[in-house]
Amino acid sequence: MHALTVRWSLADAPEGVEDKLAAYVEETSHARFTGMEGLRFKTWRMRPGEWFEGCYVFASDDARSTFQTSFELTAAESPGSQIIGSAPILIEPCEVVAVAEGGEGFVAAPRY
């Protein structure tokens, strides 16, 4: 599957940025990507004080490329960059080799 990782550093981010990012995902970003054409799924990951990232998995390489090109044009002004106070440090296409659903099932939610 065709994926894209976008990562921001939190090393110099303002105090409390982790809560602001989680609230943004819950209140705005999750809804924006739910049902998005060409996107199979998106995950948001964070290591407090270290990094925050979005991992997007697309149905096709064309969908990934189109999204990446569009995002790169505005990455420094994106909501994540505004909340963190800096542009992403990594925008990297990659391939997802496999996805396994565990015995507890998959739960899509705006916040865990």
From TrEMBL:
Gene3D superfamilies: 3.30.70.100
Superkingdom in the source lineage: Bacteria
Protein name, UniProt field: Monooxygenase
